[in-house]
Each structure stands twice: as C-alpha cells, then as structure tokens.
Design a protein that fits this description.
131 residues; alpha+beta; six-stranded antiparallel beta sheet
C-alpha cells in the first residue's frame, strides 16, 4: 500500500509535506537532512522528529522523541502501527508507519509531544503562552 497524506497525495511526497507542516508550527524549529532523511530540530541542535524511508522498501515511517513510557504503551496498544525504531528506540523514541492509512490526528499529537520533550521547559512555556 502506498502512503497517502491528508491531502490525498501518494508516495513519500504524500507524507513529507504534512509532517513538515506539523513540525514547522513549533518555534525555533529547523528542518535539515540527517542520515539522508528529512529531520526537524529544536533550535537547530536537537532532533525531535525524522522521516524514515531509508531502506527504500516502500515503507515510510516517522520517528519521534517520546517521554518515558510512551513507547511501551503505544507498542502494547497497537503494534501494527507503532514500532521501536532502530538506533533511537533505545532512548524511548517511537516509530509510526505512515504508509498504511495513518491516523493524522495521532501523528499530530506525537509530533507535539516530541517537540515538547526536546524543546525544554522555557521554550514550551513561551509557546503555550502564545497559543
């Protein structure tokens, strides 16, 4: 099955733009390529989300930083949608497949939580005050 973003686009492009739009709503976010994939950083330093299509096997996923316990909970809740990503999974990050009709509301929540887990309390407080 091919990834399809909320705008109906197929393929990787169908998920890059919606993920980019979600990530770029947060202050001090920068996008750059990391390990050959689009990734988003707080203040240009600490990554909070990256796309993963790096094995080029028709699977597209998002890897997101997560608070303690979130990974375990999501893996128990829905192992067909969530996975422990390589490399960063040992630090609690969670992976979500985007190529099988993802729940974009849940993706939005994961991106929000990822940013908050990396941004630091002062930046989070300033962001929340502007909302």
């Amino acid at each position: 099955m091919t990834a399809r973003g909320p705008d109906g686009q197929d393929g990787r492009a169908g998920v890059v733009e919606p993920v980019r739009a979600l990530c770029m709503t947060f202050p001090r976010t920068q996008e750059r390529i990391s390990h050959g994939e689009p990734a988003w950083f707080v203040g240009g330093k600490r990554m909070f989300v990256m796309l993963a299509d790096h094995h080029h096997d028709e699977r597209v996923a998002l890897w997101a930083a997560a608070q303690d316990g979130v990974q375990r909970h999501l893996l128990e809740d829905d192992p067909s949608r969530f996975f422990r990503p390589p490399y960063v999974g040992t630090r609690g990050w969670i992976g979500i497949w985007l190529d099988h009709r993802p729940d974009w509301d849940r993706v939005e929540l994961l991106v929000d939580e990822a940013w908050r887990s990396i941004a630091g309390p002062r930046l989070v407080k300033a962001h929340d005050a502007q909302q």
